[in-house]
Amino acid sequence: MATIGLLCPKFEACAVESEIEEEIIALAAASVLIKRTKRRRKRPKFHINPYLQLRNIKGRFASDFQDLRQYPPSFRENFHLNPSNFDYLLTLVGPQLEPKTRARGDSLSAAEKLAITLEYLASGSYQRHVASVYRVSKQAIGKIMDRTCEALYKSLKPLYFKVNNTTDDWLNISNRYHELWNLPNCVGAIDGKHVQIVNPPNIGSSFYNYKLTTPFPFTEGYLSHTLLV
Predict the structure, then answer these.
(1) pTM, 2 dp
(2) Among 100, 120, 155, 224, which lies 20 to 30 A Cα-Cα from 166?
(3) Rounded distance, CA 30 to CA 80, Å?
(4) Is it the case that residue 155 has pLDDT exceeding 90?
């Protein structure tokens, strides 16, 4: 090779160029093979889980909701309100929850979104369980609940969370407490929820309740005479 290089100075440069060309050709061939392999990969047979596609036929809202409405006690067990209150909430939040377009046949109605959220809140079940019985994807169920809860808050806040600023407002609440519950001079009640905790060390019986458990005040709320927060 050295002798040939001495006789032909351009030989080494030609050899290097030849090697580079071979590498380029090899890379191009590898690229073509990779593209062909990707094309040959098995394409999914469906874009939506077939189980979810049957939501409008076998989902809980389609199969059970109207039947539950005919039996208010059962309806209340599942949603913690009666059908008339459900309809009232739907009139408040419906415009915010209705899909912007009905072009897709699988769009969820405002009533279905409200039912999903209320049953989840009432039952304390896992989101994946509610998603399964309503045949909604796990990816969508969280977004549905977030949007519905936000709509409920925006709609109910001006009606039930308003602050009483005048003397007449407070007197009216006091009078209603007296009429409904026979409690004079009362303008509100505070209630809370206790959850059991592990007994902290060295506290004796300081935190015991009448059930001989160790509770922790988890939530508290103010109730008006109508029992609304």
Answers:
(1) 0.58
(2) 155
(3) 63
(4) yes
Structure-token pair, residue 199: 């007994």
Kind and range of the H or E run holding 190: strand 189-196
In this prediction, residues 65-70 reach a mean pLDDT of 93
- Residue 127 C-beta-side C-alpha neighbours within 13 Å: 11
Distances (CA, A) of 160 to 118, 119, 153, 226: 18, 22, 10, 10
CB-based contacts of 78: which residues, under 8 Å, 6+ apart? 68, 119, 122, 123
Three-state DSSP class for residue 64? helix
The residue among 134, 111, 120, 122 whose CA lies nearest residue 60 is 134
Reported confidence tier of residue 163, pLDDT bands at 50, 70, 90: confident
Residue type, position 149, single letter: C
Residue-averaged pLDDT of the chain: 78
- Indicate the SS3 state at residue 197: coil
Tell me the C-alpha distance between 91 and 101, whole Å. 19
Run of H or E including 119: helix 110-123
pLDDT score recorded for residue 4: 44
With beta carbons less than 8 A apart as the criterion, state whether 145 and 155 touch: no
pLDDT of 192: 66
